[in-house]
């Protein structure tokens, strides 16, 4: 795979760029030159996709040269030979990879997704765990995200269905690799290198399979956000942006429909609309709570939460039997916001 | 005190020394404490954190170590903990500083404690305890000298001399004296506990060639109870040996060249017994508290007794019988020499670095450690001097340090080729005596026990993705 990738780049660079340019491209060096090159020579999909040592790149180039696929035109500059072109004819890049497009987003999305799945798997199996990502922001994102959803079993089911649907589109091998990288309640995720050894594949091929699935997920959740609302909501978005389904609810609310009417109109459960409203309260600062939560109740909830030093719904509910879980979540959603 | 021990930390009793140290800390006494690795040093300041009013400031040299500690506290439900290091963005730092007083535990790297903004914020809050972890980094006689640590004495003064607890696992008397002077600890109580770990058998296995080393390693890994750690001197060796061993066992490598995510995966696989053996450089092990590691094998002789003892200390923390084996072949004396040579810059490299610094370039071509040292010495010199004069002075100091390192290396060589009790001679370096040992070392007649009764941990198989996914989300088969 790595041979093909390097050959592919050499071919695209047409003897006008040295191996150093390929090194920068594959490692995703964010310099003006590299950014320009990757567009100009149409290799931007590989931007940052194969982070390897320069010495390894040189080894590959030497091997390609020895086999007659490339020939040197200048120091560290190569051209594809006829047999090199022939070799490339049967090669296609993994179809969904787009390092350029997703360079800022894919790693964040992966970290959130993998930590979320680890958390859900451990909650439903009642096992304790150590988060697979240390980054505090990732951890608090996942915590906040989970807070917006009530029933963990329903959530697990829906996330499973979204994942299942997306993974059935891609090659069996790619889907396997992606899932093996995930950490669950019973298995810590495997590294690229471990997977490569287990299935007797090149490490670069495994890495590209993984990225292929990841980028496919990003593409699909963008194109069909409504079909994959949970995965979509893991993507980086601005504060004001809502999941598309919550966005619709928000539009209807602004038109003056009540919670019950919206549920009926959209053919959704009342609980789902409540989830939306909590989400809206979290993200839309101008959203007014009072139609759903009286100010006096809100104050009592916050006071209770402060005293208990907890955001655990049940603990608050026990002391305030007259308020609903929905009301508690609403109060806390806004409190969280003001907290920040 | 016992209630907190039980409630917060889940322990029924203190380990050796902990209670005495904690009592002194609670009385506002300055302390230097040397506890063996895995002896529960962090409890000595974490428990007081729940009794004292104000914040505990912990200075720790390694970011990864800091992260491990913070995560452990968070796992115990502690929210009022923060780690300040160079990976924080400006905004995050600002937010943290604003609420600094609300944290019970503030971890900070010595680099970040150079920031005037942070120091200012620290002076405004109540620091109940000033903890210096890995305090041997203060001393240039220690095995991991960090010039930044020297400024901690001044920092402590700036903060109004809060009570101080300096912790280390390996220090000679000279290093402890350095710690006391540098931190300006008046009226200090020293808690020096035996470094010896009687449940670890020390064993040196001589072989003739590198090939024989590898076959011996394979044999040992096959017969010894697992899990275990194999320490090597380079990244390349970690990968090579992992490749050799993984045919028969669940083995992976770990070194500083891997990205953070992959490193954490390997570390957790090991902690959760999903790996039998880990082949690694000295990058692995800090902050990992795994009680049931049964063996550590050194494929190369470490260059310093402190480092060796620390790595040995990662086995048998549960108190059960464990073994540390060192493989030694003729020619190994070269390895250490090469490592030490590479640690120090040549005259040309120093001149190059000085030129780069003068022109405000960041790339000095030096390693982190070299650069830290160079900058520290440079501060004491007249920077207006001619570059070559400076370089000469710096080179002389480097040479001096190299000599000190070589002395340690020679100690290690004598130790490994000697014919006296391994334990006694190694502990003599720390001016300590061995405790009573039944299975002491190869020189005292101990043998390597094969343990066939240990059951093989069941391999976790990789299943097709849909099965994995169903299992993760607890979806019953047949539903979809």
UniProtKB/TrEMBL annotation, chain A:
InterPro entries to which the protein is assigned, alphabetical: Helicase_HTH, YpbB-like
Source superkingdom: Bacteria
Domain Helicase Helix-turn-helix: 245-332
Record-given protein name: Uncharacterized protein YpbB
Lineage of producing organism: Bacteria, Bacillati, Bacillota, Bacilli, Bacillales
Automatic annotation (TrEMBL), chain B:
Signal peptide residues on this chain, from the entry's feature table: none
Tree of life domain: Bacteria
Pfam families: DEAD (PF00270), Helicase_C (PF00271), RecQ_Zn_bind (PF16124)
GO cellular component, one term: replisome
GO molecular function, a single term: 3'-5' DNA helicase activity
Keywords: ATP-binding, DNA-binding, Helicase, Hydrolase, Nucleotide-binding
GO terms, biological process: DNA recombination; DNA repair
Gene3D superfamilies (UniProt xref): P-loop containing nucleotide triphosphate hydrolases (3.40.50.300)
Domain named Helicase C-terminal: residues: 216-358
Residue span, Helicase ATP-binding domain: 22-189
NCBIfam families: recQ_fam
Record protein name field: ATP-dependent DNA helicase RecQ
Native organism: Anoxybacillus mongoliensis
């Amino acid at each position: 795979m790595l041979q093909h990738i390097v050959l592919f780049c050499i071919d695209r660079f047409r003897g006008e760029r040295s191996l150093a340019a390929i090194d920068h491209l594959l490692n995703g060096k964010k310099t003006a030159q590299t950014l320009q090159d990757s567009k100009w020579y149409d290799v931007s999909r590989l931007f940052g996709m194969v982070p390897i040592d320069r010495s390894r790149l040189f080894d590959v180039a030497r091997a390609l040269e020895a086999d007659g696929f490339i020939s040197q035109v200048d120091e560290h500059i190569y051209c594809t030979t006829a047999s090199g072109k022939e070799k490339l004819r049967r090669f296609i890049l993994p179809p969904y990879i787009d390092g350029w497009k997703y360079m800022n987003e894919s790693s964040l999305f992966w970290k959130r997704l993998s930590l979320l799945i680890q958390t859900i798997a451990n909650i439903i199996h009642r096992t304790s765990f150590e988060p697979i990502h240390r980054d505090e922001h990732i951890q608090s994102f996942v915590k906040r995200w989970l807070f917006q959803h009530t029933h963990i079993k329903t959530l697990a089911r829906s996330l499973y269905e979204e994942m299942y649907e997306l993974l059935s589109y891609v090659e069996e091998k790619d889907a396997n690799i992606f899932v093996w990288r995930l950490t669950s309640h019973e298995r810590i995720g495997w590294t690229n290198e471990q997977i490569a050894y287990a299935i007797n594949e090149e490490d670069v091929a495994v890495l590209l399979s993984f990225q292929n699935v990841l980028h496919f997920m990003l593409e699909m959740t963008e194109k069909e956000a409504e079909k994959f609302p949970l995965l979509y909501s893991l993507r980086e978005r601005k504060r004001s942006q809502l999941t598309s389904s919550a966005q619709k609810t928000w539009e209807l609310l602004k038109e003056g429909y009540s919670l019950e009417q919206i549920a009926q109109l959209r053919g959704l459960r009342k609980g789902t609309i409540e989830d939306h409203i909590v989400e809206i309260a979290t993200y839309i600062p101008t959203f007014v709570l009072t139609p759903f939560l009286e100010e006096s109740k809100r104050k009592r909830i916050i006071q209770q939460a402060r005293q208990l030093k907890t955001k655990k719904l049940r603990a608050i509910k026990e002391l305030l039997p007259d308020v609903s879980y929905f009301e508690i979540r609403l109060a806390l959603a806004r409190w969280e916001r003001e907290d920040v | 005190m016992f209630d907190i021990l039980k409630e917060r930390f889940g322990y029924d009793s203190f380990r050796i020394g902990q209670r005495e140290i904690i009592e002194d800390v609670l009385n506002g006494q300055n302390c230097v404490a040397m506890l063996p690795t895995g002896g529960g040093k962090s409890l000595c300041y974490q428990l007081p954190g729940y009794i004292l009013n104000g914040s505990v400031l912990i200075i720790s040299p390694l970011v990864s170590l800091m992260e491990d500690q913070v995560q452990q506290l968070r796992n115990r439900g502690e929210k009022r903990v923060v780690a300040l290091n160079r990976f924080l963005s400006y905004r995050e730092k600002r937010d943290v500083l604003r609420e600094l007083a609300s944290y019970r535990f503030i971890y900070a790297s010595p680099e970040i404690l150079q920031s005037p903004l942070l120091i200012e914020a620290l002076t405004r809050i109540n620091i109940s305890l000033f903890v210096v972890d890995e305090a041997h980094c203060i001393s240039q006689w220690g095995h991991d000298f960090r010039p930044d640590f020297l400024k901690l004495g001044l920092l402590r003064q700036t903060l109004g001399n809060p009570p101080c607890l300096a912790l280390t696992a390996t220090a000679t008397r000279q290093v402890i004296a350095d710690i006391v002077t540098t931190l300006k600890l008046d009226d200090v109580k020293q808690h020096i506990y035996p470094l010896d770990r009687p449940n670890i058998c020390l064993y040196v296995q001589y072989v003739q060639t590198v090939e024989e080393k590898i076959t011996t390693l394979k044999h040992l890994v096959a017969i010894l109870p697992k899990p275990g750690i194999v320490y090597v001197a380079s990244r390349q060796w970690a990968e090579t040996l992992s490749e050799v061993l993984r045919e028969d066992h669940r083995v992976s490598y770990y070194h500083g060249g891997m990205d953070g995510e992959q490193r954490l995966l390997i570390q957790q696989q090991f902690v959760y017994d999903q790996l039998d053996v880990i082949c690694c450089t000295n990058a692995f092990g800090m902050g990992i508290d795994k009680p049931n590691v049964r063996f550590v094998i050194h494929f190369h002789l470490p260059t310093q007794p402190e480092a060796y003892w620390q790595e040995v200390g990662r086995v048998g923390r549960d108190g059960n019988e464990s073994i540390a084996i060192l493989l030694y072949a003729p020619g190994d004396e070269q390895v250490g020499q090469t490592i030490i040579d590479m640690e120090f810059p040549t005259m040309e490299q120093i001149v190059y670095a000085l030129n780069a610094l003068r022109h405000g370039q960041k790339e000095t071509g030096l390693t982190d450690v070299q650069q830290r040292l160079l900058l520290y010495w440079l501060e004491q010199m007249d920077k207006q001097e001619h570059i070559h004069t400076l370089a000469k002075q710096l080179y002389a100091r480097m040479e001096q340090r190299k000599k000190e390192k070589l002395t340690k290396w020679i100690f290690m060589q004598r130790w490994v080729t000697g014919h006296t009790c391994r334990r006694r001679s190694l502990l003599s370096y720390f001016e300590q005596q061995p405790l009573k040992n039944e299975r002491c070392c190869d020189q005292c007649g101990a043998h390597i026990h094969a343990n066939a009764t240990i059951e093989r941990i069941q391999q976790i198989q990789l299943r097709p993705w849909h099965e994995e996914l169903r299992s993760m989300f607890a979806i019953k088969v047949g539903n979809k």
